[in-house]
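Postdoc handover notes: sequence design on the structure in folder B. Input tokens:
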């Protein structure tokens, strides 16, 4: 069995390893928030309206800083989150500057940029 030495994972701020771990943490946090929100919102009596969740972390994830999004667009994205949370999660993964899954092997092997 081959042993992999991972001493090189002492990370520097802008290293591939640091960026990979930060990206993975971001993905994991967003996934946890969305799945928990989906579970909680499904327990509501009927479809929640935008004004009932406005200002929440879920509303901020739905808007992603888009201040021009209409109520209808927001409620459509909320419905998407409720009906198919994995598609909603995937949309965040597509917008990450680097997909951490692509870099894990490089990080473990100690390869730099």
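Designed sequence:
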């Amino acid at each position: 069995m081959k042993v992999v030495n991972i001493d090189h994972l002492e990370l520097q701020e802008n290293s591939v390893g640091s960026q990979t771990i930060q990206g993975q943490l971001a993905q994991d946090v967003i996934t946890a928030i969305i799945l928990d929100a989906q579970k909680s919102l499904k327990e509501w009596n009927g479809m929640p309206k935008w004004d009932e969740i406005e200002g929440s972390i879920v509303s901020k994830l739905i808007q992603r800083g888009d201040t021009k999004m209409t109520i209808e667009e927001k409620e459509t994205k909320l419905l998407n989150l409720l009906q198919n949370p994995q598609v909603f999660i995937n949309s965040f993964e597509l917008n990450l500057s680097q997909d951490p899954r692509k870099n894990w092997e490089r990080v473990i092997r100690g390869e730099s940029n």
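Context for whoever picks this up: The chain is about 65% helix and 0% strand. Don't rerun without checking with the PI first.
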